[in-house]
Predict the 3D structure of the following.
Amino acid sequence: MPDRPDAVEQALRALRHRDRSAAELDARLAQRGVTESEREQALETLERIGYLDDERFARTRAEQLAARGSGNALIRHDLEGRGLEEEHVEAALAALEPERERAARILERRGPGAKTARYLASRGFSPDALENLVARED
């Protein structure tokens, strides 16, 4: 095994540039031919030393997406697509500023109207968050 770096080293390289979920890291190691038992051991090691934390990753990723103007549906879709457990997804969404308030801030910046409503809907905001915002159009 002298030519191939061990699973922990490969995982650390993958984490060097950005945080990843355990599922993403597992898939990346599997693509590189790391056996299942080696992957499990590597992930356990990284979790134990704090380099891999799905709860922290979900919270941070949700905050980043919300800051970029994403609604809860888009955030949920992104987090679930990264293999995060439902409990981490829900906790991350619950920690965010309410969706209505984020939508109201975007409305203030873009102005009311159907175009803004379509924009917010495309960014994953729920109909409930848009309910009173579009009604302001006069």
User: Anything to note?
Assistant: Residues 55-136 form one domain. The chain has a mean pLDDT of 91.
